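pasting for ref
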Amino acid sequence: MTNVVIPNQKNLDRKIQAIRQDGPQLLHILSDFDQTLIKAFVNGKIVQSLTVTLRDHSLLTPDYNEKARALAGLYYPIETDPATPLLEKKQAMHEWWTKIYALMIDSGLTRQHLAKVIELTKARLRAGTSDFFKTLNQHDIPLVIMSATGIGAEAIGMFLEKNGVLLPNVHIIGNNFIWDNDGKAIGVRDPIIHSLNKDETAIQNFPVYKEVKNRKNVLLLGDFIDDLGMVQGFDYDNLISVGFLNDNKEKQLPSYRENFDVIITNDGPMNYINKLLGDMLQYHHEK
């Protein structure tokens, strides 16, 4: 597969063999959402996040767009500046998420707005993702989606339901609004998950931990090196990490090779991941 890079095939094979022998009952999946399960580009254009879809379709009060753009203009350069220290970046991202949530609430966000965003979004699952979800469900393997998406875990659930993959084994760790009886947002639950604190968002703090704590083999999917932080603090035996390098391949491939067991380049499909999953489950198919 031309869009698959495997830095150390021997090491990967060793991990696959170990996971295969342990069986599906000791495996769980830990995945990012945006630009990981979702394609980064559709028809050659970058897919806007659900939060940007909310903004750019003017679904809230007339002044929301201008204020939201101003916040992005202030904080996005900090998020992407390699010279800014990580602690300073994390503080800035917490400020950004806190302010954008306060702005959404002040601008009248409702559950109906989330549903409208899902109706309008151009986001698409990667080819083969539905098969991936269904195979995991068939083998009772938990899929934990950890996302910092701005309009929260509930919107991700709506998107997955729309695409027929909100299955019983799927668990979403993300930001959650507090709604009043009329479905209007009145607050956000702690902790706030942003783009740079997944390493601090310990899975132990969420109900799904009871389901995965003894499943010490992990397949991790993400599109940033920071996504490796999703497994921080989890006592795993074997970890296979997959990085989706959707753009800037020449510049970023060396660092991805140092950090991931498998790299999917050029916004590629889930075909190799499905093959990898099949390899990990093969022993139990043959028994």
